[in-house]
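Per reviewer request, we include the raw input and output of the structure prediction for the construct analysed in the revised manuscript.
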Amino acid sequence: MVTRPERHFRPFMIMLAAVTIGATACQDLVVANKNSPSARQAQKNIRDVQSATAGSMVAAGNSLFRVLQGNSSTLAGYSVQSFIYTSAQQTATLTGTGTQQQYKDILEPRPALPNQAVICSTVCDWGPRTFWADIGGVSSFPHDALRFINSQPEAFAADTATDIYRLEAFARFVRGWSWGYAALAFDSVHTFHESVDLDSITDPYSFSRDNLISWRVGLENAIADLDSVISITANPAWAANRAWIAGSNTWFLTNAPITQARLAEMAYTLKARLKILGARTPDERAALPWDTILGWTEKGVKAGNDYAVQLSETPAVTSQVLIRMQNNSTTATTNGRWNYHTIGMADQPFAVRVTGTGSNVTATLDSVARSGYQNWLATPVRNRSRFDIVTPDRRITGQYSNGVPNPQANGSYTCYREDNNGFDLGRGRELFSAYQWSRHKLRNSIGCAQLAVTGNNAGLQPLITAVENNLMRAEALVRLNRDEEALPFINATRTAAGLVPVTTAGVQQDSLGMCVPRMDNGQCGTLYTAIRYERMIELAGQDVFQAYADSRGWGMLADGSLTSFPVPGNVLDMYGLPNYTNGGRTGRNTATYAPFDGN
């Protein structure tokens, strides 16, 4: 049974209540709580507002970082399964209880998303419902701050303009990011301007129904918030301040304060990310305003200025993304592995012949056809199975002493797995994989042999990086026919992985006749293929949504996948709107697997 204080039931919180209602199928009641003060009473000065807003980024409760890392406040990790595993980047069978249906999210072809108002009473196919609720809840905290800044100037009369600038910049950064990711996920969203007094709304269901907007409008509203962040950081009245905000390392959970200049860089890169990932199809991605995006990335995050959150055990700052992508416990039900649609692009049509033993081992390449990625693609989906990859990309596998790839040696980002821990043959052997993304644990000195330790509560978790910014710059330059200028940004991560540099002609063979990545037809890739591959490898594990959105824009989603998630059925039911769903071979907003590699 759900109850709530009437004064505080803002439209954002409809989303959170909806999850509980959908799970229990219980009648929702409105109970006035006369002991609960309004937000206006609770926050009378900028210090109070700062305290209430500061936790919206990395607080232990519902915060942006937690949502981006799949740490749902309601059903832990379920939003991870809905997005990471639906991409071309990760796979799993999600074995577990009989009613746990999330494995359907990664079937090929994918069935339509179940979106009825009431799904089941236990663990079941929740899809994006927790993401809708939690990302909406996060955006409500900075919204409150912006409302008070704009509607109660008298409350800040004793405070300096600098205090207000700092608070507004932080609030708009968090709200823009959360609004942006809601728009990336769904076909319709809420983005309420701070002039709207949410506390005064007497019929939140009708108000929310009437103010659902297109994801495109929501995305532009998110980018507008980030534009405001950039404008605020450039304000001369603020320029004399050394650190962006007192305790900003606590607000952003970084080791060093976030300066004004660094915050502006982060906002530029985030703007470019939202614009690019918003594309639902390869045609939409090609039609983006790449000259504008290039201008943003020129001002984006520079080397050494990555925004990364410090993970910790106490206080608990952890990542469900890292747990699910890296865990290999024999009893885990959500162990993830690399999807062959991503790392298969690194595979070569050569067999590795090994002779000798011990220190006398000699490895050579044989051009005899073997069972690799090309055969995997040509095999009917239900008959596919795991296979070993032959690749010179040292992020995926290791090598023998003479430089020949060793398909079963760990790479710098990857652990080779002989086992099938957590994989259920009954859910489909096409979901099996021999390779596990392990970049975070390996860079934190957690070896591949430590199966159940992922480092999800230790080390730094990058959220906005110079590598991402440079790869967006590279794509913009290639889209604008400035290929030569793009090469350094593409090659920086390639050459570090032992691959030969790309040229304006595309991906080149090395001295052994190998090239990475290859297109699905087996030919060495174009510059577009190289950019796509670098993005999928380098940005893996960043957050819950990046891989899915990237796969969508490159045409990598499996047949039947959703290109947009519907407004959750329980929310539609409360709003009095007709139910609908997306996905399936013949459904609305449906993807067809057709990777874009360029002309």
